[in-house]
Amino acid sequence: MSTAVIHYIDHPHPVTGVTNSKLGVWLFIASEVMLFGALFSSYIILRIGNPAWPHGWMVLNVPLATLNTMILITSSVTMVMSWAALMMNRFDRFRLYMGLTILLGLAFMGVKGFEYSSKFHHEHFPWTDNFYGIYFTLTGLHGLHVLGGILLNLYFLVTGKRLWTRNPKMFAGRIEAAGLYWHFVDLVWIFLFPSIYLL
Amino acid sequence: MSEHNEHHELGFIRTYVFSIDHKVIGIQYAITGLLFLFFGFCLMMLMRWQLAYPGEALPLIASWFENSQMMPGGVMSPDLYNSFGAMHGTIMVFLGVVPLAVGGFGNYLVPLQIGAPDMAFPKLNAASYWSYFVGGVVMLCSFFLPGGPAQSGWTSYPPLSILASTGQTAWLIGMVFLITSSLLGSINIIVTIVQLRAKGLSFFRMPFLVWAQFVTSFLLVLAFPPLEAAAVFQLMDRVAGTSFFMPSGLVVGGMPLQVAGGGNPVLWQHLFWFLAHPEVYVLILPALGIVTEIIANNTRKPLYGYKTMVYSVLFLGFMSFIVWAHHMFMTGMGTTMSNFFQTTTMIISIPSVILITCLIITLWGGSIRFNLPMMFALAFLPMFAIGGLTGLPLGLATSDIYLHDTYYVIGHFHYVVAPGTLFALFAGIYYWYPKVTGRMMNNLLGKLHFWISFLAINGIFMPMFIQGFAGVSRRLHTPNFYAHAQAVQGTNVFMSISAWVLGAAQLFFIINFFLSLKAGKRASDNPWDATTLEWATPTPPPHGNFLQEPVVHRGPYEYSVPGKATDYIPQQVS
């Protein structure tokens, strides 16, 4: 165990106004923006270089993706509610909303899985053409990010009680950081949905 | 505060292996980085045998490879030569210099120099080291895969890299681990610098090394993810059969290749160089920071133009993101693009020249102490300058089209990275060794190391410019096969002998490193009479670093202040 005291873990730095973990998550999100930025730009370059590129709405299941968009946006709301519950000192409410967030995340993955399996069923694979290559790579990588978020939230749901009783401020800070990540993953989907499914 | 600094007794494994103390992690990074540098150097020495005496069996160790497929009878096959080339580059850049400069020096020195007890996220710090370690192991394991390791150069250009043997897949997986490692590490460094500076240590009182690490970390955070995206695409191309980087109608070995097609190989180059140009500054800036610390200390003068240097380094960091396509003048991009990228490339040389000029003016009128770290730091200046100036013809499209992919390019970037950056890193090792171990390094062994290395390293890289002007391509396995290269084959022998002499000179360093651990002269807390905060701790610093929280009252380089009795004032003295 480290015995040295590191400042600004549970209260914000007076000048920067953020805690260490919040600044760290923002930097992480900046790097993720660069990652998905590069993926999206590659998609654009591949698409304009290929005259035979199909329209997403003609080959993909738009109603299912719309449903998934709604599921994910709702999960962002419940994520905020779980953090707000901690701010109001209601750990039981936190549990409820966090559980809902995880369930909605799982529902998103379930719909995704259904979509994938129907694509496989119709013999559409990543190697079919570059449209499906992009579709599976981008949504797959986003799916991995959702999965990461679900596991992270599950960890906080299961082990949260101990830290909550020991240092509620620190725990709320962690949930806030996890929430930032979760919102970012939602935001990526908000970009993915129109650019792959609708255009 | 004192009660928090009590040191709980931890077992050996928690103290030295899975430690979360930034100093131990820094040492782990540095040792692992040095080992990889040595390994990458050995690959190069083997390649130099093939280049000097093409087709002849290796001396002494040829009998080990009697039945080997890659080295029948001890003669290096072209595939193996390509593998060594690719792995030499990858290992030196991603597993050697960056972990040593950012992981080693950054981890050890940044919290000490800003008066923090540790990094902002100690456990994340350990995770980033172990991620690097796993990435390194994956890279090493690729040597044992059927078909050998990656063969497509450290740049892994498709379509070649997508058709290459399984080693390329291992290369990509290893890179993803290394990218993760440097992301976690650099986020940690930025948060530490922003949040955990000691009381009174404003941004413009930070030592220049901290500034250099700060900018470097931003480059890593923002430039590495596009390479990760590229690695994901290439992995999909290799494993899932997509063709993001594979054009339609590709003919390989006389047969049309069966891929979905429609991909764009130049897209890989854009994504790769968007990282790899800032990566050049990731290699250089920490080295420049180290040299600055040592020169300021050993001229006993305040740094000339400290603020100018800081602004230059910030501008350099920003510009490094908009020069990447100067690596791609040969891809057939239009003249407008070429104009843009050669203009930005010329602009980025301005802050580089300002930085070096400030260091040279700092030397003016100083009472210079020629100790070991200072000799390496002084050698950095002309070596880095040669590397920088030879880069200008490569930044201009007209001259680049002739020099592209010749040995001139190799000479240019090796001058920046080998006698430049590596000399700075050696300077740093000699300079902070007393703080880390409590012992001084041996002077005579150090001087032998310096002088022989200095002569030999120029013997390797200077003739490369001649070869480049003669038009010798950088990836030739058997240079004497080509008429135009035969004229300069003699330089290959000279360069190879220099390389082996350089290798032998490193033995002085290795002996010195281990001998001084046991038998070196004991060092005081501040053996160089330095002003920065890391020298205000006990030697070696305890867990938690400072006995009491430091408070800073002045800038980092208060040397020879008029009217003061000593020629330096430590930062924390009021």
Offer a concise description of the structure.
With 199 residues, chain A is mainly α.
Low-pLDDT stretches of chain A are: none
How widely separated are the two ends of chain A? 53 Å
Count of DSSP strands of chain A: 0
The first-to-last residue Cα distance of chain B is 20 Å
Helix content of chain A: over 70%
The chain-level mean pLDDT of chain B equals: 93
Q: How is the main sheet of chain B built?
A: 2 strands, antiparallel
Overall spatial form of chain A: elongated
Largest interface (CB within 8 Å) is between: A-B, 42 and 50 residues
Per the principal axes of the C-alpha atoms, what is the gross shape of chain B? globular
Strand composition percent of chain A? under 5%
Classify the beta-strand content of chain B into a percent band. Answer: under 5%
Lateral strand order in the biggest sheet of chain B: 1-2
Number of helices of chain B: 17
Strand runs of chain B, count: 2
Major beta sheet of chain A, specifics? Answer: none
Rg over CA atoms of chain A: 19 Å
**Order of SSEs of chain B:** HHHHHHHEEHHHHHHHHHH
What would your notes on this structure say?
The complex is a heterodimer of chains A (199) and B (574). Helices cover 79% and strands 0% of the residues of chain A. In chain A, α1 (20-48) packs antiparallel against α5, α3 (62-87) runs antiparallel to α4 (91-121) and α3 (62-87) packs antiparallel against α6 (168-198). Chain A has helices at residues 20-48, 56-59, 62-87, 91-121, 130-166, 168-198. Chain A has six helices and no strands. Chain A is mainly α and 199 residues long. Chain B has 574 residues and is mainly alpha-helical. Chain B is built from 17 helices and two strands. In chain B, strands 1-2 form a two-stranded antiparallel sheet. The two termini of chain B are 20 Å apart. Mean pLDDT of chain B is 93; it is low at 1-6. Chains A and B meet through α1 and α5 of A and α6, α7 and α8 of B.
